[in-house]
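Standup notes
- DV: blocked on the single-chain target, sequence here:
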Amino acid sequence: MAFSPGIYPNDIFLVTKGRIKVFLTYPDGKEFILTILDPGDIFSGHTRAFGQALEDSVMLLMPLDAFRKMLARYPNLMYGLIRVLGDALKHSLDVIEQLVFMEAKIRLANLLYQWTFSRGIHQHDGILVHTGLTREELAYLIGATRQTLTTLLKEFEAQQIITVYKRSILVRDIDALKKVIFQLSL
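- DV (later): unblocked, structure below
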């Protein structure tokens, strides 16, 4: 665990290497992923969120008072913090909206579609998206069970829309993903 609630209430984390999953956890074992921190991202230790490294990671810990002084001296640092908090809020609102209005198939298609543009790497046979997440974490991200996610991934694979690897997904047919999103949401 990179951090836990209540351990660093007066500190700020700065990710310098790797990726950190920021999430809430519940007594039944379910998780709700708020955001994924990348190098350069800042997060506050006063929240009730947990942080877990998704890969080899390094974080710097800074006392809140020192961070406030740094912000006064370098106000541009505020943009990084606002971006991370904005991403977490946007993701939370997206999940709420999708859970209320969309079925799991659309939520998965929508997530994969968005990731092709935000983190996809063009290959000769599609767009490779390194998720860095286990199937269980990916299921939590779309508000589904692991079993539902596995069924949907197999369905998309059978339709040759995607190819699933351990912690990556090759999007072979982005237009088919788009059709899933818009046909099912009508």
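- Follow-up: The chain has six helices and ten strands.
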